[in-house]
Amino acid sequence: MSQTAARTTSAAASATSPRGRGARIALRGVQVLLAVFFGTASALPKLIAHSSAAETFDEMGWGSAGMYVIGILELAGAVALLVPVLQSVAAMALSALLVGAFVVQLTVFDGENAATPVILIVPLLVIAWARRRHNAELLRLVRRRA
């Protein structure tokens, strides 16, 4: 048996094993929780121009335009985390937003709450890695439409 066939057989066996199934369910649960967080706790206050979000973006000098753009990106990422073909790309995109949030926390707010983006990046990177096989499917879809 070739190495590729052995890896494929091993991956298929682990995906159907109770442990593999439990890991998939746990990962999906984390994805749903992160999608709910980004959609409601993070994007919603920006999109409804809640005073706390508006004040923060004013303090950064980004104003309402920056607030709405970030809110839309977070909401799009939250929805994409739930779409199988987009989950890996969404996790990477949200991680990139969080790197920006980390830099802003350090530079504008003197490190206050800088740990929050770092903590959120960890499960997003796990999702991006675990769901990376969907990237090939996404690439095929994009090429077919081009």
UniProtKB/TrEMBL annotation:
Gene Ontology CC terms, in alphabetical order: membrane
Membrane topology reported for the UniProt record: Multi-pass membrane protein
Top-level taxon of origin: Bacteria
Keywords: Membrane, Transmembrane, Transmembrane helix
Keyword Zinc (UniProt): no
UniProt-listed InterPro entries: DoxX
First and last residue of the signal peptide: none
Transmembrane domains' residue ranges: 25-45, 65-83, 90-108, 114-130
Cellular location(s): Membrane
Keyword Transmembrane listed: yes
Pfam family, one: DoxX_2
Record-given protein name: DoxX family protein
